[in-house]
Amino acid sequence: MSVPEIAVVVASHDRSLRLRWLLNALEEQTFDEPWELVIVHDYDPPTSERVIERHPIAGQRSVRAMHGDGGPGRRRNTGWRAARGELVAFIDDDCRAEPDWLERLVAIARQHPGHVIQGRTRPDPFEEQVLKAPHVRTLDIVPVNSYRETCNILYPRELLERLEGFDERAITGEDVDLSLRALAAGAPIKAAPDALAYHAIESFTLPGILRVNLKWRHLAYLVKRHPELRSEFPFGIFWDEEHMLVTAAAVGVLGASRHPWLLALAAPYVRKASRRRGRGRRARALALAELPGQATRQLAEVLGMAAGSVRHRTLLL
């Protein structure tokens, strides 16, 4: 039996239903050459059998389900090292690929040997109503972006071996780290905008989103390893504009009792936050009603990153 040139690797944790939907999408792929699927997960045997081994795709092509502990970097390393393909496509377990996703990704990879190929990721249109919730998580990625996330990307196996894969010490941002090391090693990154995957849109309560976002405190580790990322940050220390504005607003509110003029520092944040739902009267009223929860979430992220800055000895807010 010939060794497939293409491997698709999925790292899965605590998303068995989402994984099932991904497998449904992979079953419908139009790519007509042999390819293999490697899934590294931490599910118990009954869940693995029900979700993966009994799925129709397991009877159509080479599917390997492997148990793997640790973070996403370790699971992905386990997956690509177990794969046989010379081209390794990664897709996340909370994504859903278009039928021609793999076909288009591989086509660009063959046109540009040795390149990393990043596909297009959009919020799932089947779940767009979830965007009405105040606290949601999804991804909207136009390639090639600054972070080159692993939810929809292809690496040559030779490059993965040369870079020794993902940094398993990283709790988050391991995919960004790998792409930056790839660039430093001279591997160009090419866009495949027609290789489309849809990312889940998930709604959370305020306590729930605060728990989910705790991991961002470990981004300081990534920035310490790659200080060149600071060129993307406001003033070189804030992860994004929202963090900068909410920090200024907090300083203004806390200092206003002594120096009332400091309250003006909150104005840019309130102005931006009031427009997050649009510029109409109803949209702005809704955004203002959601503002306390949004500010709480963003301040919690800033404080978490401050704690991570202490741990990793580099400033990031």
List the helices and strands and how they pair.
Blueprint: E1 6-12, H1 16-27, E2 35-41, H2 45-53, E3 62-67, H3 72-82, E4 87-91, E5 95-97, H4 101-111, E6 116-123, E7 136-137, E8 152-156, H5 157-163, H6 174-184, E9 189-199, E10 202-203, H7 206-212, H8 219-225, H9 241-255, H10 267-273, H11 281-312
Parallel strand pairs: 1-2, 1-4, 2-3, 6-9
Antiparallel strand pairs: 4-8, 5-9, 6-8, 7-10
Helix pairs in contact: 1-2, 8-11, 9-10, 9-11
How far apart the termini lie comes to: 53 Å
Biggest sheet features: 8 strands, mixed
SS field, number of helical segments? 11
Radius of gyration: 21 Å
Number of strands: 10
Sheet with most strands: strand arrangement? 3-2-1-4-8-6-9-5
| pLDDT < 50 stretches | none
User: What average pLDDT do the residues reach?
Assistant: 94
Structural class: alpha/beta
